[in-house]
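Moderator note: this is an archived Q&A kept for reference. The question asked for a predicted structure of one protein chain; the sequence and the answer are reproduced below.
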Amino acid sequence: QVQLVESGGGLVQAGGSLKLSCAASGLTFSSYVMGWFRQVPEKEREFVAAITRSGGSTHYADSVKGRFTISRDNAKNTVYLQMNSLKPEDTAVYYCAAVSDSSNGRWITIGQTIPKNYDYWGQGTQVTVSS
């Protein structure tokens, strides 16, 4: 049974930082591209960041580029999202997700930024940024 468990969310003031973690079990972690997504009520889930199987390449939404950093530790089956310079508009439920990548691509593809293409999802963690 595959499980993705996020942690590290909370309440922070604008300009502050948070680091999210997502611990995976029940899958061969290094065979999956990992992504972070976020969602606010009544809006579509949106792409935040993704990282290739080896961690050698990453891709970010324009709205978080330069502020957020995705990383992974395949020995610990964990993916992280370091969020700096947080803004009130970053407030959302953040989800980690996994998509199988049998081709072991060097880069994140457009398809790997689309939520419906992901195989597994965590339960989400709330991030609230106060102004």
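Archived answer notes: The two ends are 40 Å apart (CA to CA).
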